[in-house]
Design brief:
Elements (H helix, E strand, L loop, with lengths): L3 E5 L5 H9 L7 E5 H7 L2 H8 L4 E7 L3 H13 L4 E5 L3 H12 L8 E5 L7 H6 L7 H14 L4 E3 L5 H8 L4 E4 L18 H7 L3 E4 L1 H4 L4 H14 L1
Helix pairs in contact: 4-5, 7-8, 9-11
The structure holds cytidine-5'-monophosphate (C5P).
Cytidine-5'-monophosphate binds next to β8.
């Protein structure tokens, strides 16, 4: 599986995202479409960006009863996205149903990645509100293993957890890692960050990077710097 840089296109309108992607000319980076853009523009934004030649990670984090997730995944699969995701907390029954829904008549399907615990959930909230007593990192690894057992392709995690995930779930189990910043740059609201080069060294398969590219004065140069550190070196 080739390593790649995924740009988090956290814009809230088609106009803004297309203006951004136009800057890349004939280059077609892998892009992440999140809830904000999807809910403001609807499924047509996926078709539009796909038609321009980009690979798409549709980050909608599904979590519902297995039957609902299965049918919804079939819809996302028909949009021809390359990667989508769900919450591992939906249980193995939901994850296997999701895979069934995603699989097209010809046997192909988008990659399916699990969210373990959101990074906004800390140990105290997990214990007090979710009544989960075990240590957070143990919970994250357990959810990753449940995702692997269910046949999913990988998890979203920190680059700092990539090696642990690969050790527990196999080297081919994908680690899709946000929290990436260039050396010496403003980290914004991210807390535990690594550079693209460090993410590569730690074993990340895909890095998801937003503002260091989207808010850059020269987004194409920033993207290329990221690719040269993470993919080409
Ligand atoms: O702009 P920035 O590089 O921080 O964007 C990172 C992207 O990855 C955002 O779309 C954010 O929602 C997403 N993400 C994250 N941390 C997670 C999961 C997803 O930053 N744990």
């Amino acid at each position: 599986m080739g390593k790649d840089v995924i740009i988090a296109c956290d814009f809230n309108s088609k106009h803004e995202v297309i203006r951004f992607l136009d800057k890349f000319g004939s280059k077609k980076p892998f892009v992440k479409i999140g809830m904000e853009l999807y809910y403001s523009e609807g499924p047509q934004i996926v078709r539009d960006i796909k038609a321009r030649g980009h690979k798409i990670f549709l980050d909608l984090k599904l979590h519902d009863i297995p039957n609902t997730v299965k049918k919804s995944m079939a819809v996302l699969s028909s949009l021809d996205v390359d990667m989508c995701n769900l919450h591992a907390a939906g249980t193995k029954a939901m994850m296997t149903a999701a895979l069934e829904g995603l699989t097209r008549a010809d046997g192909t399907r988008p990659l399916l990645i699990a969210v373990t615990q959101l990074t906004s959930t800390d140990q105290a909230r997990m214990k007090e509100e979710l009544l989960i007593e075990r240590p957070l990192d143990e919970v994250v690894m357990h959810y990753a293993k449940c995702a692997a057992d269910s046949g999913l392709d990988g998890v979203v995690c920190s680059p700092l957890e990539a090696a642990k995930v690969h050790a527990a779930c196999g080297k081919d189990f994908l680690t899709v890692t946000p929290g990436v910043r260039f050396a010496g740059a403003d980290v914004g609201d991210q807390v535990r960050v690594t550079t693209p080069a460090k993410a590569k060294e730690l074993g990340s398969d895909y890095i998801v990077i937003g503002r260091p590219i989207t808010a850059s004065e020269d987004p194409v140069a920033s993207y290329e710097k990221c690719v040269s550190e993470f993919v080409d070196c």
